[in-house]
Write a structure and sequence with these properties.
CATH superfamily of the largest domain: Methylglyoxal synthase-like domain
Oligomer: single chain
CATH architecture of the largest domain: 3-Layer(aba) Sandwich
Helix content: 25-40%
Shape: elongated
Largest sheet: 12 strands, mixed
CATH class of the largest domain: Alpha Beta
Number of domains: 3
Radius of gyration: 31 Å
Distance between the termini: 61 Å
Number of strands: 21
Strand content: 15-25%
Structural class: alpha/beta
Length: 564
């Protein structure tokens, strides 16, 4: 049976094998980024390739001795509208899209005097670079939305069976190598086409994300959290934040291949939004072994908590949760206190500080028997790096990582993303500082002024613990944490056991309300001096009464900090 008889209407099913090597006799070149154009020009000239081009690209090629045919001569129409229209013409696109195995296509070209292009070399306007400028105006950004460029790229990529498409100076070497050996292979053209579609998809994603923000295209306002979760929970009231976008497109690029994921049998890599270099997307590793998947999860927890503290602070994290954290007048003092909070857990931990990591900090880590996996800081003193990479026994293993300051959420439209099976959850990140002015003393006795700072510190700590979570602090040092428990009374018990005698005279914070008064008796026996919690339970009255009976002042914040 002739296979063309069974093909769907309008779909050609060739009976001959696809053409493998296509000689490169005529190319269209139109590039915004002129990087490497000298090397490309020399290769095209040496191979005797006929070149058609536009505007600045034509001038650049001519300066390197390439004879260029102007696109206007091909279209019979000048560039108009300040260059907005120049390549959008059948004489160009028919030359790109004509199928070499279709006699009818070739007849059309001959009938209209159109010549084929064997390759299209195009890169696009620098839209992403322009919108990254603080003073970028919408009109300027809109002018940098490329129309003809993506159309040329997509046309050539679609017809990759016969036309090669090059979209980046990084691909020039591959193209030139093919040119010098007589043409592109089908496998090469397929790869070029795949990259081209990735390129235009990413380009459109950046534009659509910018345009959605510019035009204010957002989803229907969602039901208030209070309606979704039940009116009994006062912490779930709606906020003044704008609703999330109805559609969200994000282009990710692989930044860092990882040895494996959470376990050795899982492959893994670090991906980041294209062009993003803030937060962990912009980390710079100074030394040490390669970072692992688990290292990066722990780094996220450590750096985000350190960033919530205004004073000089250090955080020690194990399995994404802080096992020690402190603020002090110096980073070294904070680090010493944080390490002392739970020395057993501190072994093999991740350390993060919110100031420059100096020599005094490095000397603290030279104690025999101590080992840390990663140290993260905005910057490292040269002497600190020298000590850590020459003195301790683990000097070849420790990773020193600089994490740049800045808003890492801008690239994701201000959203924190998290994957679940087959879908993505999105939310505004919990990064706003709590306002003590909104807190309310609900017991008969108020906490003494000396406990105001420790209460604030404890409530900062608990927001980065895995819920159900309890934090016990002595001054501005975390001394006990109960994390990831299915019962809040269990979380309380574990945190107090971790703190031991250090709980006496300290403060206790809960990430959500106490559903029952049963934890108060444990807190009383441990000698806790004050409690801070969001409140919002229908049994708040019973919990407050229990705190009054125990003589423990309690503060409600009216803001919950669950972290699942």
């Amino acid at each position: 049976m002739n296979p063309t008889h069974t093909a769907p209407h309008g779909v050609h099913r060739p009976t001959t094998p696809a053409i493998d090597v296509v000689p490169i006799r005529r190319v269209l070149v139109s590039v915004f980024d002129k990087t490497g154009i000298d090397r490309l020009a020399r290769a095209l000239k040496a191979a005797g390739v006929r070149v058609a081009s536009t505007g600045g690209t034509s001038t650049a090629l001519a300066s390197h001795g390439v004879e260029v045919e102007d696109v206007s001569a091909i279209t019979g129409f000048p560039e108009v509208l300040d260059g907005r229209v120049k390549t959008l013409h059948p004489n160009i696109f028919a030359g790109i899209l004509a199928r070499g195995d279709r006699p009818d296509d070739l007849e059309v070209l001959a009938q209209h005097g159109i010549e084929r292009f064997d390759a299209v070399i195009v890169n696009l306007y620098a839209f992403e670079t322009v919108i990254a400028k603080p003073d970028c105006q919408p009109a300027e950004a809109i002018e940098l939305i490329d129309i003809g460029g993506p159309s040329l790229v997509r046309a050539a990529a679609k017809n990759h069976a016969f036309t090669a498409v090059v979209t980046s100076p990084d691909q020039y070497e591959e193209f030139v190598a093919a040119l010098e050996r007589g043409g592109t292979t089908l496998a090469e053209r397929r790869l070029f086409a795949a990259r081209a579609f990735e390129h235009t998809a990413g380009y459109d994603a950046v534009i659509s994300q910018w345009m959605a923000r510019h035009a204010g295209l957002v989803a229907e306002p969602a039901r208030s959290q209070a309606a979704a979760a039940g009116a009994n929970d006062r912490n779930n009231e709606s906020t003044d934040e704008p609703p999330l976008a109805a559609r969200f497109t994000l282009e990710l690029e692989r930044r860092l291949p990882l040895r494996y994921g959470e376990n050795p049998h899982q492959s893994a890599a670090l991906y980041a939004p294209v062009g993003t270099h803030l937060g962990l997307a912009g980390l710079r590793q100074l030394c040490g072994k390669e970072l692992s998947y688990n290292n990066l999860l722990d780094l996220d927890g450590a750096t985000r908590l350190a960033g919530l503290i205004e004073e000089p602070a250090a955080v020690v994290v194990k399995h994404t949760n802080p096992c020690g954290a402190a603020s002090a007048t110096t980073i070294a003092a904070a680090l010493a206190t944080a390490l002392a909070a739970d020395p057993i857990s501190a072994f093999g931990s991740i350390v993060a500080v919110n100031r420059t990591f100096d020599r005094a900090c490095a000397e603290l880590l030279l104690v025999p028997g101590l080992f840390v996996e990663v140290i993260a800081a905005p910057a490292f003193e040269k002497e600190a790096v020298e000590l850590l990479t020459t003195k301790p026994t683990w000097k070849a293993s420790v990773r020193l990582v600089e994490v740049p300051a800045g808003d890492p959420w801008d690239a994701t439209g201000g959203m924190e993303l998290r994957s679940i099976a087959g879908a993505i959850l999105a939310q505004r990140p919990d990064v706003l500082c709590d306002d003590p002015a909104a807190w309310k003393v609900v017991t008969k006795t108020a906490p003494p002024p000396a406990l105001t700072q420790p209460l604030g510190f404890a409530f900062t700590m608990v927001r980065r613990l895995t819920s159900n979570a309890i934090a016990v602090c002595q001054g501005t040092s975390l001394v006990g944490a109960g994390i990831g428990q299915t019962s809040r009374v269990d979380a309380t018990r574990i945190a107090l056991e971790k703190a031991g005698d250090r709980a006496r005279g300290g403060v206790l914070a809960s990430d959500a309300f106490f559903p029952f008064p049963d934890s108060i008796e444990l807190i009383k026996r441990a000698g806790i001096a004050a409690i801070i919690q969001p409140g919002g339970s229908k049994r708040d009255g019973e919990v407050i009464a229990a705190a009054d009976a125990a003589g423990i002042p309690m503060v409600f914040t009216a803001r919950r900090h669950f972290r699942h």
